[in-house]
């Protein structure tokens, strides 16, 4: 699911720390808002979508989670990308770049070139 690729990319700036909880970790709501902001509100996520995909990413070992306190003093689960998640993200990014390049060439093709 592509939302998972977007979420891991959002977390890629927040590597898993060794030791105490890292303040750079993001909670689910923060991940969703960041994705919406970066996409210019073209990708809007509901809570069901966000948390279901975060669970799948954890099950694959691509992200970690730890409980902490949010900026508004609420208990929240904070997520960070794992080394395995970074490796997968690199593979996914390379795939999407190749696909984007191919699609760009196909869409730029003149109609008579395809005949």
Looking at this protein, list some descriptive labels.
115 residues; alpha+beta; Arc Repressor Mutant, subunit A; three-stranded antiparallel sheet; 4 helices
Question: Could you explain the architecture of this structure?
Answer:
The chain is an alpha+beta fold. The protein has one domain (2-114): Winged helix-like DNA-binding domain superfamily/Winged helix DNA-binding domain (Arc Repressor Mutant, subunit A, Orthogonal Bundle). It contains four helices and three strands, in the order H-E-H-H-E-E-H. The protein has a three-stranded antiparallel β-sheet with strand order 1-3-2. Strand 2 and strand 3 form a beta hairpin. Helix 1 (2-11) crosses helix 3. The radius of gyration is 17 Å and the shape is elongated. Mean pLDDT is 83; it is low at 15-23.
Number of domain modules: 1
Major sheet: 3 strands, antiparallel
SSE string:
HEHHEEH
| Outline type | elongated
- The CATH architecture can be given as Orthogonal Bundle
Report the structural category.
alpha+beta
CATH topology-level name: Arc Repressor Mutant, subunit A
**How many extended strands?**
3
Which helices and strands occur, and which strands form pairs?
Layout: H1 2-11, E1 26-27, H2 28-38, H3 47-59, E2 63-69, E3 75-81, H4 83-108
Antiparallel strand pairs: 1-3, 2-3
Helix pairs in contact: 1-2, 1-3, 2-3
């Amino acid at each position: 699911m592509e939302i998972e690729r977007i979420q891991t990319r959002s977390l890629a700036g927040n590597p898993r720390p060794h030791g105490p909880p890292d303040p750079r970790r993001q909670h689910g709501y923060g991940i969703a808002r960041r994705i919406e902001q970066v996409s210019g509100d073209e990708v809007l996520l509901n809570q069901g979508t966000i948390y279901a995909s975060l669970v799948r990413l954890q099950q694959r070992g691509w992200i970690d989670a730890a409980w902490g306190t949010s900026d508004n003093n609420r208990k929240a689960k904070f997520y960070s990308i794992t080394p395995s998640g970074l490796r997968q993200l690199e593979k996914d990014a390379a795939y999407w770049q190749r696909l984007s390049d191919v699609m760009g060439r196909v869409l730029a093709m003149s109609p008579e070139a395809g005949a």
